[in-house]
Design goal:
356 residues; alpha/beta; seven-stranded mixed beta sheet; 10 helices; 13% strand
């Protein structure tokens, strides 16, 4: 091979080496670029996976949050239900002691309002009612007193162990018991309290603030029922919505008919001028409200913080739908009353207390 040919071969080899090196580095760069792209895609996938995990965690947390909210919403009376309906023997001594201590702290020597608890054979409910009262929050001075309507069970004993003053009314009826409480009360304002009912912590304070408004003679609130096997929470809510709507419409012309004794309070100075109806079985509070109209307005408090909870003394033990239908039929008979006012009512013979 000539020298010239050798130089050409050598040049070609160098060109090949240069081209090979160039291809190598190009391929290397492409691999690096692809690797970088894969890392970016992987990072994006990790981010998406993290987002999905976060969403999954949020979804898992939501039921817990809802359960917590439900628990918080219902918590104000759940603890009292733990003894509601139980005989006094089954009430823990710690609850009795706690109730007595709390009631003693609330008692004022110069009360603005009197909280008067009436009871007749309410051994299984009274302690829960008093326990709830012992934990109220009220910035106004109050007194708590009881009236035992000559019970045959341990009602008087529960009053005695609670430490509050109580009085025995031997003539049976809510009217006699309410009147007895009014006669012994010292506050300017009087709260009706039924012993089978549990009142929320701010009930008395908020009701009292409405009662102290100028031109007010009495106030009334709304109430709910405890759910049970025959009365679901949803069913009760629907029943109460219909009932509350009717009471609200009725109160414009006939406010006295929308008053219920378990959530009723009034100016005791006015009340002492008006005799309690003791000759009727039901309606003594509505009659008092009617008599008080001449002194001022009957106000209705719709604040849910004033919504008491009670048993089924005023609701049929049948299903909620049967109770609702019965109520609609009963109220429907006199539906026209919501369109005009009335200052006098005739007593139904079956609502009169029989004289011996």
């Amino acid at each position: 091979m000539s020298e010239k040919q050798e130089k050409n071969v050598s040049g070609q080899e160098k060109d090949c080496q240069t081209a090979g090196i160039s291809i190598y580095f190009t391929t290397f760069a492409e691999n690096i670029s692809q690797h970088s792209t894969l890392n970016t895609q992987l990072s994006t996938l990790n981010t998406q996976l993290s987002t999905l995990n976060s969403q999954h965690s949020t979804l898992n947390t939501q039921p817990s949050t809802l359960n917590t909210q439900h628990s918080t919403y219902m918590a104000w009376y759940d603890k009292y239900l733990s003894i509601y309906g139980k005989p006094f023997d089954e009430v823990p001594q710690s609850v009795i002691d706690e109730t007595r201590s709390g009631l003693a702290r609330l008692q004022s020597t110069e009360p603005i309002a009197s909280i008067v608890v009436i009871a007749y054979n309410e051994e299984t409910h009274l302690q829960a009612c008093l326990w709830a009262i012992s934990e109220i929050r009220c910035k106004y001075p109050v007194e708590i007193i009881g009236v035992d309507n000559d019970s045959r069970d341990r009602t008087a004993e529960i009053f005695r162990q609670s430490g509050i003053p109580f009085y025995t009314e031997y003539q049976h009826s809510c009217g006699y018991a309410r009147r007895c409480g009014l006669q012994h009360s010292r506050g300017k304002y009087y709260f009706d309290v039924d012993s089978d009912t549990i009142y929320p912590p701010l009930y008395y304070e908020l009701m009292l603030e409405q009662l102290m408004r100028p031109g007010t003679s009495c106030v009334s609130a709304t109430w709910s029922y405890f759910p049970d096997a025959n009365h679901t929470r949803l069913g009760l809510r629907m029943y109460e919505m219909v009932r509350d709507l009717f009471l609200w419409v009725q109160h414009f012309k006939r406010p006295e008919l929308s008053v219920r004794g378990l959530v009723f309070a009034y100016n005791a100075d006015y009340g002492r001028k008006e005799p309690y109806r003791v000759d009727i079985i039901r309606g003594e509070d509505g009659s008092m409200a009617l008599a008080l109209k001449k002194y001022g307005k009957i106000r209705f408090v719709r604040d849910r913080r004033c919504r008491a909870v009670t048993g089924y003394g005023t609701l049929s033990e049948s299903s909620i739908w049967q109770s609702l239908w019965k109520s609609i039929k009963t109220q429907g008979r006199g539906l026209t009353r919501i369109f005009y006012k009335k200052d006098h009512y005739e007593d139904s013979p079956d609502n009169l207390v029989k004289k011996h």
